[in-house]
Amino acid sequence: MATPILLALALFAGLACSTPSSRILGGTQTSIAQYPSVVQVEAAGASTGIWSQTCGGNILTVRYILSAAHCFHGIFYEPKNRRIRAGTSIRSYGGQVVYLDVEINHPTYGANDMDGDISLVRLRGSLEYGIYVQQGSIITQDFHMPEGIPVDLVGWGATQLGGLPSNELREATVFIVKREICAERYRNLFIPRAVTKNMICASLLDVGGKDACHGDFGGPLFYGQILVGILSWGEGCANKTLPGVSTAVSSYTQWVIGSAI
Hints:
Organism: Mamestra configurata
CATH superfamily of the largest domain: Trypsin-like serine proteases
Protein name: Serine protease 4
Strand content: 25-35%
Shape: globular
Pfam families: Trypsin
Largest sheet: 6 strands, antiparallel, barrel
Distance between the termini: 9 Å
GO molecular function: serine-type endopeptidase activity
């Protein structure tokens, strides 16, 4: 039987006056011991059959992972070609490997640009909890993250646009950007993009230099150890004027609980 999903029921009243995390801005190496709920999503190459990390995810229970729907979608996607690797800081090596049973992409995904980019992933077998493999906590339904709050993104993605993925787990601290500002900037692109109420924007706005990049998507956006966002999309990597965009987990908490239990 799946263990209950942990909800973040702590008081958030002090968020608006929080101070930045002590972690170094710009991206630094970290350890799975600091983020034991983070997992790698691996895909088998269509022609080679070689497994490689392509996305991230977060542990909900021993049988369920939360990730991005776009990591489990597309004309070449098949569940048999995805698996989860947990409990290791090293990309595509070590830890526990469990294969995918089925993905449950949110039914709204694909209807409005990247809105609804969230997937509940059921595993064929069960993860074994330990020091490096632990259940994560998700934010409560409809909680709004205030502007300016520091949040941490974690993953094995590229450290520069067009670069190779990181062999070691990395973290970076960014700040919540007001949704209206974010939406306006993406709306004014030559090809406009939709930033909806179900999304969180975060960056070093008008400074740049730190962001998620390819290989990080599907992974977590944390406030402390609470999952508040799922890294989803952006314009390039660490764009100075266009924030990275994550799926706001609080828009889907009730759906997650109802689908995973």
